[in-house]
Amino acid sequence: MSEPILRATDLSRTFATPTRSTTALAGVSLAVPARRSLGIVGESGAGKSTLLRLLLGLDRPDSGTVHFRGEELRPRDRALMRRFRREVQVVFQDPRSSLDPRMRVRDIVAEPLRSLRVPGDHRARVAELLAAVGLDPDMAERYPAQFSGGQRQRIAIARALAPRPSVLIADEPVSALDVTVRQQILALLDRLREELGMSLVMVSHDMAVVGRLCEDVLIMRAGRQVEAGPTREVFRDPQEAYTRELLAAVPQLPGA
Amino acid sequence: MSLLEIRDLTVRTADGRPVVDRATWSLDAGGRLGIIGESGSGKSLTALAILGLVPEGMTVTGQVLLDGVDLLTLPARALRRVRGARVAMVFQEPLTALDPLMTIGRQIAGPLRLHRGLRGAAARAAAAELCRLVQLPEVERVLDSYPWQLSGGQRQRAGLALALACEPDVLLADEPTTALDVTVQAEILTLLDDVTRRTGCSLVFISHDLPVVAQLAEDLAVMHDGAVVEHTTVAAALAGAEHPYTRELIAAARAVSHLPEDR
Amino acid sequence: MTTELSTVEQEPAAPRPSGQGRAARSLTVGAVLVGLVLVVALVSLVWTPYGLTDGSGPRLGGPSGEHWAGTDRLGRDLLTQLMLGARAAVVVAVSTTLVAGALGVTVGVVAASATRWLDTALHTVVDLLIAFPTLLLAMLIVTVRGASTASVVAAIGIAGSAIIARVTRVNAARVLREDYVTAARAAGTGYWGILVRHVLPNIAPTLLVQLMLLAGSAVLAEASLSYLGLGAPPPDPTWGRMLREAQSTISAAPTSAILPGVGIAAFVLGLNLLGDGIRERRDPELAR
């Protein structure tokens, strides 16, 4: 089996303030192979956001490593980080705060192209990206406040896709959206993943969303991993009590 | 006659735009109504309008009939006797709904003193009883704690205790579990179910999450753009709703909340 | 399936603020007042009724056909002095704002992006500076460098920079915590890029308001310092010194005191109104 694009080994991270220290992560490992989708599920305090930041190289672990295409991630190595960021991109949870309110949409979507010095016609690429996420390219001149939540999330996705990443990390991409819009954004993510051959890592507290989109799942609790494996199997036959508890707690519509 | 009924309830913003548009539904004694809608549908404002708590600048017209008495026509003093005593509310974010500077015991003692005239030891005993009713562990410790010292689930239980302090006839719950983890949500929903049955309190459960509403409510009012587009039972809606928006909502909810493997 | 573009999530619009009317009024009146002073200052560059040192007029004469504002103790035309005083006030307002802005924003941004101990060190210094009486600072600088416009600008500029630094730090720190900055980092934007493209544009509106208000207090501070004799020495007129000179003769020639006072008041009021107007237009709910 070929080397996974992204691999985390035994990550630990503790946050210390003068009054107390919190262990956000304790020895979590995962692998993201090419073209696979992984869902990371956990409730609040599970350490999902911390794990995400470590995977994105936005924070350094206290112990453990993150490997990108076999190379260890070193935030100081600018060339490495540039290569890394071209290939690993992120979509955040809150579409209201993840777009700079003072920038036009075209500058927002083009930012990765500029910062990562991607060659080519940025204008054309932005238009292409907006169309790919189902937005009218003429809207590029507008500001984020002029769009609805779902549309802003599409803009965020367009931005993430700009440098043609091989891994898309999504942090609760639909939690802040209305339910009718949720379905559309999930469908969009699914379709884009197929078309562009990307890997998807989706962090969510919502088992159903993960179940729909992710082939593999990692269940976390209080900074530790509880269970991992192919989603279908884990959901059908959970080994751990906590996993069972999570699955039982998801409210289901009768007659589904 | 139904216990709580709203007729043509309209809430307008300062420049005349209706954010709740002629909403009409009724709730029988002991009944459970779910109000479902997406953001901007006006569902929370409806609850606030019932209690006369809409933000400044907004106007409310229509009727809110509690046992036949129109709350919108009541003078402020009479309305204050209704609030908390007959109609109480539980909010989405317990951290902001509870006063951060008062211990839980003191906060619950507030309505107890106001509506039931309880003081001192009697008030504390009643508050302790309420905490037990909402299944808060270590009741004595909780009574002396501040909101920030409790977990999210505990805070929401405390909020519920506060709402139930005066044995209201109607409990308005505005997205009470939205901010909670899924396992805690399950506990709170069970708690709401249990407590409302035991006290005979009627429930209006407001949410954007259809599967959650479906667990507790019998009747359903679907809101969209300020209007109640459908008022039916949960069972009927799931079997085959009439309004296209309801159908769209149910289809989306099914697609998004369905777990891939039956258990 | 519904077409993706037609999806609408209504975000309920906030009730339209009634502060817009107030904002417009503030802005208009403020702009008029400040504009008047600016015009007078500009005109003084090319023309004044008399020369500054021209003492040909009557001593302490009231307003007359030849001397519209009257004359001072030495027979010099007051209108000329008023106009030149306006120029001095504008120069002070602009230069202190520039100094305070440049210094304050730099310190604020460094503090906001610094490690905790550097941030603490910087904002302790800033807090001390804010608490330090501007007057005392001015006297210290004047003792070292002598009384002049430059000394006044330095003193007020440094004192003002502390306030700007505080406002900058708080706002820059807030912006740095926003998701869109994290997103920018994930998009490969470096520190400078984030500063220039995200932090500065987002703190600019708040900063602008603060700078306007600062300009107003700078003018007042300069007037006070001049009045105390710590400002630009004669013969350059400033409104503050005109007040000082008019003090002893106020009953004989009231206009010599009233007019510079009105000038100061008008300019400061105008700057404050502009600042309030900008703030009200931007955040009508905050202003209420």
What features would you describe in this structure?
- The complex is a heterotrimer of chains A (256), B (263) and C (288).
- Chain A is of the alpha/beta class and 256 residues long.
- Chain A has 9 helices and 10 strands.
- In chain A, the strands form 2 sheets. Chain A has a 6-stranded mixed sheet, sandwiched between helices. A 4-stranded antiparallel sheet of chain A has the order 2-1-4-5, covered by helices on one side.
- The longest helix of chain A has 18 residues, at 179-196.
- Chain A is globular and about 50 Å long.
- Chain B is an alpha/beta fold.
- Chain B has 2 domains: 4-86 and 175-257, Rossmann fold (3-Layer(aba) Sandwich); 101-167.
- Chain B is built from 11 helices and 10 strands.
- Chain C contains 10 helices and no strands.
- The chains are: A alpha/beta (256), B alpha/beta (263), C mainly alpha (288).
- At the B-C interface, loops of B face loops of C.
Rounded to the nearest angstrom, the radius of gyration of chain C is 24 Å
Helix tally of chain C equals: 10
Number of distinct beta strands of chain B: 10
CATH overall fold name of chain C: MetI-like fold
Helix segment tally of chain B = 11
How do the SSEs of chain C run, as a string of H and E? Answer: HHHHHHHHHH
Notable characteristics:
A: Rossmann fold; six-stranded mixed β-sheet; four-stranded antiparallel β-sheet; 9 helices; 10 strands; 25% strand; globular; B: alpha/beta; 2 domains; 24% strand
